[in-house]
Amino acid sequence: MNKEKKSIFNKMNDTSLLLTITIVIFLLMYIGAIVIQGGGFTKPQMFFNILNANAALIITACGMSIVMISGGIDISVGGVVALVSMSCAVYLDHKGGSIIGSILIALGIGIAFGLVQGFLVAVLDIQPFIVSLAGMFFARGMTTIVNTAPFNVEDEEFNALKLTRVNVPFMGSVNKKGIYVPAYVEIGVIVALLIVVLLFLVLRWTRLGRSFYAVGGNKQSALMMGINVRRTKFLSHLICSVLAGIGGYVYFLHVGSGSASHAMGMEMNAIASSIIGGTMLTGGVGNIIGTLFGVLSLSTIQNIVASAGLDQA
Amino acid sequence: MVKSFFKRLTSNQLFIPLMALILLAVINLINDPGFFRITLGTNNAGNPVLSGYLITILDYGSELGILAIGMTLVTAASGGQDISVGATIAIAGSAMLRVLCGGNSRPDQIQAPIIVAFLVACIVGMLCGAFNGLLVAIFKIQPMIATLILFTAGRSIAAWINNNELPIVPDPKFSYFGSFIPGIPIPTTVFIVAICIVIIALVLKFTNLGLYTQAVGINENSSRLNGINPTFIKFLAFVILGLCVAVAALIKVSRLSTINYSVIAKDIEMDAILAVALGGNALSGGKFNMWASILGAYVIQFLTTTLYKFNVQSDALAAYKAVVVILLVVFSAPTVRDYMARLGKNMAKRKEAA
Amino acid sequence: MFVGLRERSEAIRISPSHTVIHIGAGLCSAPFLKIWRGENVSENVVLKMRGINKTFPGVRALQNVDFTLNKGEIHALMGENGAGKSTLIKVLTGVYTKDDGTIELEGKGEVAIHSPQDAQKLGISTVYQEITLCPNLTVAENMFIGREQGAFTNWKQMNANADKLLEQLDIPASATQQLSNCSIAVQQMVAIARAIDMDCKVLILDEPTSSLDEQEVEKLFGLMRDLKEMGVGIIFVTHFLDQVYEVCDKITVLRDGQLVGEYEIKDLPRVQLVAKMLGKEMDDLSDIKGEHEAYNGQDAGEIVFEAKGLQSDAGIKPFDFYIKKGEVNGFTGLLGSGRSECVRAIFGADRVIGGNVKVKGKEVKISKPLDAMKNGIAYLPEDRKLDGIIGDLSVRENIIMALQVLTGFFKPFSKAQANAFAREYIEKLNIKTASVDTPIKSLSGGNQQKVILARWLLMHPEYLILDEPTRGIDVGTKVDIQKLVLELASEGMSVTFISSETDEMLRTCSRLVVMRDRKVVGELSGDDLTQNKIMSTIAGGE
Predict the structure, then answer these.
(1) With contacts defined as CB-CB under 8 Å, which chain A residues touch C152?
(2) Which chain B positions have a beta carbon within 8 Å of A133's beta carbon?
């Protein structure tokens, strides 16, 4: 056996190959943005702002990746995010609830959606698309039932949390007045990065993680090889919905308001980020780090488009 | 004898939508004995119009009834659903307005005959259908995923067609399609639906569309060996749905004489899928009953009207309907059906034993 | 953490009730694997199946079948379609539950197998024709996933163990390689490696070679011989005779759900094997050919269809073929020899990639089924369920389908017309159905086949292709169909008839094209049309 002779591409599996491509694309795009747009993109804070604005998307996209890796799809995540922000907003402002309570509400909504959708998909064998389509409409409808009008949260404790900034050392810049401004990220970014690391470890090093890949690769084979396909599918949907709940709270923390039109089309962005990050819609291939870069790439494009539009105006 | 009659009745595809209709009617009758009253009055312009809840249901169920026709064909042929119909209604409607108003948001008179605008909308609708059909039939992408693209991008495209402006059609004639023609007390939409139903009935009678669609949906291999081109049939189903979308867009835009890109035909894809399912058609494709689907569409409008009557907000409707969808798919899921069948058998056995 | 190879093989060595694991003979460099030292083979029965019965609605798939497998033996299981070999395998692997009979495993006595998982736990592993691994995972993962312990994956240990095993079995792959980057043969071997690493005593290879090229087959055989030396009992199911004689020790032949016999390979020459599989001794009940006169119209002898160098993407070698008016001919050969692919190419059912076709002397292009139908060619496909019936549609709609498509999209038959057509053929072919509106899927197999036959007869084709029209239907219907074929021919229809039962072909055909290994190897007619001649041509190479 001559292992040395194998080309590097042969040795790499689909997942790491796609991951490399994603990271290279992102770097090229960011460099491109610096060259074309200059200005804002040269400052590190621009990068951190992209993170701040997309922490919730990173979290939901991670969940989406797991469902997609195991061969399913969940388009209810945007609706869940909206429902979580509205419910938490109402709880905090109208009911005078606490921060802890609102976090529990977010988790509870995520778990509830995960349990029901996971049951319908895994146990009753209903197409995940139909199930999560209904889930999306249900979540959107429930959001208006909870409260129709959009409003900003006035709760002081919450606003303090919302404005909490974590400074990033050595990344600050000197502004026009010559004062050093430290670079910062919001709490949501910390949460998002923790989740990325955690899920990366789960997917890579645990039996459950590998089961996601096996089930997505070939359901029949996975069954024959002794994997509990139902449980794996169920857990993938549960994790996705719970992450949508957490993502919903991070989103809420970023915008600080409740509205039925929050997170419109977020499911599409999550799917798109996963795909850019190398996760296949057909299942079995994907990587969480790739998804992180997928979100970054997507939002960099959006930023370029947005600032280009401003230049024209 | 009674048993076999009962069995024949329940196995008929029209049974489920009819029962749902009766159930809704009874609920409404109990709640409000005057629910079915129809009165002849005059509208603001002094023309005679019929009014009443039944007329409302017939009127506002029209778009759904028309969409149900195309959705049934798409479901039967491809075994999947098109979730982009709401967004493509926005696109077709926007194209119609663009032609009528010529890019000017407040024109003094229409810039092109209504028929031309409608034909343009038809072409646009069919192009959208063709796009979806291409992805599904030739690139073999799952219908729901393929149509997710237009579902997401459609409303932005619609806004882009008119440079994000909201043109208003100045000609009152244009509004006749979504309301009343002076002198005729029945809503125009009822006639439009009737025309659509007659056309599809003629098509089903004088072509093999129904036979081919069902054959492709049931066994693609076999239908290919019988000389049918399954790719084309699937593609055709999506194009026909595109045409239905254009007609629905005409009604929708005509009702307001303008358009609201983010609100027009919102959530209608859900209702259209629900109509097909409620009509007893398998969402996995194959045999279909067009009339059951159309009846299903009106049942859903009935449900919507009833919910409104119980003071449910329009934005919250989706939540209730989502529950109905889930119940429907749960009860039609093969695993659940098998379980129910086993349960029934066991019960029968126990009865025999006792 | 999963148990490493070392610990496991030690565990096996200690446990006396456990069959000795047989990996490693000839690979003595691997000290942790215990070598099975050959005692007398006949005393080493590893699997004993006795009096197995299995009935499906209307079919006795297995009748009192016995099967015995020894350690260190490669045992071929042979038989034509419907002989019951796949049913036997499925009973053994727990996919089906047997009605009757016993299965004994060495060291375990009589066992009950209710699911594939049960079988696997008992040491019966199966490698299927289509690979049941996950192409997106690495080779090592495919070997160990689903049987690890603990919540975490120890990649280092897993890869090391996998590499060790791959090296022992001489499989040219590395543990970290993605499976889809390996050739089909290597994937097949990884599946086998997984199977034998799971302490398997009985390894079933269900047509593993059908998608492999010659070199890959050789590699696989090398592996099989190694395993044999290690003492694994291997059941080998294949359609390729050459392979049986190359690698097997024993042959068990099944026919019509019954055991024909078990033979040492050296006692059973090829011709006899073919005879046993096809059932030569089946008495030739009636000479129905004599009852029907040959077609003698003016245009008798005109060539209706002619193909030169025809080739499709289904993997058959280019072939020439012709048929005359009123002639009945057939493609014969064992299953998998390419006889179905030939007629599919004629009908345009597979993608045609080369060759010229003439219909009645005029060159035509047949690239899809509709082209063939327009040229008066009809085709009854081999797989009734997958390619024939349109399950949820009524008998009426199934009957009129082909003619309807030919008539045109804009000219549907009226319901009365369609009913008349359907009723005519229901009567003609004696189809038993409750009504013309009954969904075809609720009919019995034989009646479904008659409906499909009616579909094509209604088209009044000039050339009718019947691929296994009599498979899985009762004897009475079989004779009906044979008679019908001759009747149609005497009226001037040309018919190509394919059947795995040679006597059926002999009774109906006047000319046979013989195929082996996806190419045409001979043509028989006149006095050459005898069982012996057919069999020796099929067997070839002796």
Answers:
(1) 205-207
(2) 83, 144, 270, 273, 325
Distance CA A228, CA A211 (A): 8
Give the phi and the psi of residue C434 in degrees, each rounded to 5: -65, -45
Residue C115 CB contacts under 8 Å (≥ 6 apart), including other chains: C94
Alpha carbon distance C28, C22 (integer Å) = 12
Query: What local confidence, expressed as pLDDT, does residue C516 receive?
Result: 84
State the virtual CA torsion across C517, C523, C527, C532 in degrees, nearest 10: 0
Q: What is the pLDDT of residue A308?
A: 61
The answer, yes or no, to whether residue C69 has pLDDT greater than 50, is yes
Q: How many CA atoms lie within 13 A of C416 on its CB side?
A: 0
Q: Cβ B211–C401 below 8 Å, yes or no?
A: yes
- What ipTM, to 2 d.p.? 0.84
Q: B152 contacts in A (CB within 8 Å)?
A: 265, 268
pLDDT < 70 stretches in chain A? 1-15, 38-40, 305-313
Q: How high is the pLDDT of residue A247?
A: 95
pLDDT of residue C14: 36
| SS3 (DSSP) at A285 | coil
The pLDDT of residue C9 is 38
Compute how many other C-beta atoms are within 10 angstroms of the C-beta atom of residue A136.
22
B160-176: string of b/e by CB count within 10 Å (b at 16+)?
ebbeebebebeeeebbe
Domain boundaries, chain A: 8-23+49-156+192-299
Is there a contact between B57 and B305 (Cβ–Cβ < 8 Å)?
A: yes
Output the six-digit token pair for C69. 């497998």
CB-based contact A265 B152, cutoff 8 Å: yes
Q: How far apart are CA B329 and CA A129, in angstroms?
A: 12
Q: Is C179 exposed, middle or buried (0-12, 13-18, 19+ CB in 10 A)?
A: buried
- With a CB cutoff of 8 Å and minimum separation 6, the contacts of B12 are none
Question: For B205, which residue in chain C has the nearest alpha carbon?
Answer: C412
